[in-house]
Amino acid sequence: MDLEKIEGLVKILENSSLTELTIKEGNLKISMSKQKYAAPQVGENMAMDPVTTVQTQEEPEEEELFITSPIVGTFYSAAAPDVPAFVKVGDIIKAGRTVCILEAMKMMNEIDCEYDCEIEAILVSNEQKVEYGQPLFRVKKL
């Protein structure tokens, strides 16, 4: 969630009769509340500006791991059209196993997994163009 969205939420809370507001987006939770006015003590500043508190909290969640593209190219899930894919969802693979091929400048580059893991999701389709650093697979480290 970006700063502009948070500022917008603060303005909504300040300009409404709401006393509390909680928003959850993904694993980020934002809770806001208006503080009650306290009677000022003698000698204190008499200005009564509303005070809004913002509390953000990251919920503990397993870190998502990805196998990402080391180059710009075309993704191939198998060595040939009539051959089964290197991996499928649910496969448990060992470090060093080829998970796909990326074609760049007519060169076929085998992409190997760096650690033992389970394939949770394949994030690109066969023959799709991919960018440097783009996630190809979501994995769970073993």
Structure description:
With 142 residues, the protein is mainly beta. The protein has two domains: 3-58, no CATH class; 65-141, OB fold (Dihydrolipoamide Acetyltransferase, E2P). The chain is built from one helix and eleven strands. The protein has one helix at 3-14, and strands spanning 20-25, 28-34, 52-58, 65-68, 73-76, 92-93, 98-104, 107-112, 117-122, 129-130, 135-141. The chain has a four-stranded antiparallel beta sheet, with no helix packed on it. A hairpin with a 2-residue loop joins strand 7 (98-104) and strand 8. The chain starts with a helix and ends with a strand. The model has no long low-confidence stretch (mean pLDDT 82).
Order of H and E elements: HEEEEEEEEEEE
Counting copies of identical and different chains, the oligomeric state is single chain
The gyration radius over C-alpha positions equals: 25 Å
- State the end-to-end CA separation: 31 Å
Largest sheet: 4 strands, antiparallel
Poorly predicted runs are none
Number of helix segments?
1
Counting structural domains, the number is 2
* CATH class categorisation of the largest domain: Mainly Beta
Annotated CATH homologous superfamily of the largest domain? RNA polymerase II/Efflux pump adaptor protein, barrel-sandwich hybrid domain
What's the rounded overall pLDDT mean?
82
